[in-house]
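Handout, section 4.2: multi-component inputs.
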Amino acid sequence: MKHSKIDFNRFWSPAFETIEEFVFLIDNDFNLIKVNKSFLAFTGKKEKDFIAKKCYNIVHGTKGPLSECPHQRMLRTQKFESGEIYNFHFQKRLSVRTTPIYDDNYKLIGSIHIASENTKGKKIEQLKDEFVRNVSHELRTPLSISKEGISLILDEIAGKINKKQKKILIAAKSNIDRLARLIDNLLDISRIESGKLELKKELIDIKVLIKEIASTFISRAKEKGLELRLNYPKQTLMAYADRDRIGEVFTNLLENAVKFSKEGCVEITARENEKDIACAVTDTGIGISKRDLSRIFGKFEQFGRTVGPGEKGTGLGLSIAWGIVQMHKGKIWIKSKPNKGTRVFFTLPKKAEKA
Amino acid sequence: MKKKILVVDDEPDFLEMIKMRLEANKYEVVTAVNGKEALRKIKEERPAAVLLDILMPKLDGLETLKRIRRQDKNLPVFMISAFSNEERFKAARQLKASGFIVKTSDLKKQLRTIASAIRLSEKYRAL
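Output:
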């Protein structure tokens, strides 16, 4: 380690080795300099497995820092930062506190990063989850009544209607569907965030799933003049995953691909690697800027809203996809350039994890 | 002769909608607003099927289902829910619910399941 000028040991004390919380020493480049006994005990690994590795990779399993990462914020503000992060890797909600540390010349060299299982936060999560459930249920009842009411009139069960009335009611009905989808998404993201989403994992045929989901987009792609392409090898591709949830991931990615492309093609690819099944959804759409890419998986982020009138979404599709892939212990990432299209990659395990 | 269906839901507006839908499909409809009334009406009206809201105050859907099953193991009882992946579905299945109706999904399509369930149960009763 090229840190011989700075004696990190003086920042470290036996106290850190005793406390329950996880303590990390992280440098300006997100490298782990030191981790405490509590973290080693929790992961069952040795110190050498962590040192000089990127903290976001080890702790969160991601390729870069999370958008809510307090260490990243601390690097900018050079002040104490804190936050609550749900860690998919360990399936824990953690309360994180980050304090900057300096060398003798008052130069920032990294941070002390303490993560604890926040019991107060857990209670708040529980309350939030209950709240979202209750509100969702309360919202769905008038929603379903309105929808059925409109359907009854459209089906002329309450008397004949004219073309104009039909047109109005069809528009009203599709917007109620939109509202219902938004509520579903909110419930999903809330459950994912509090780790309460239960996955039913089994061996599934990815090619069959892709064909199924793609078929639901055929008419929309046709309307927009987009080509829909499937690209996968002849042999079966089996992944260990929750069929409905991964279906949701494909749906959300295709939704975005179709929404943000004015022309060209949308392609779904899948192939088998040694350790996983790799899937991708590619489009020839408006693309994403580098600055927006860092926020892309955040909630309610939606970029390029000026494209496609009437093509509105909840801004939660990617967050949900990210959460689901993380829960499968897979990886998800995006490559994109403005006006050059976007490609979303994700991987799925081929078999169940060894306990 | 028209088949009779009992619909149980604490939302009067929903009862009105589903009643119209069922009547348009040539069913005779009787309603109840809670579990207690439902049990009484089952005895009095002898419906061919019951649509039961899963979430109700006082005697809730699952409890009502339990009591119905004590008296009649074959009566088609469909649980109505606002959600499509309702956690209570598992419990309802264990209590031998005949099926599920999701309020926010197309009611028209779901009516076919009810119709076939009634036909099936009649065949069973005839044995």
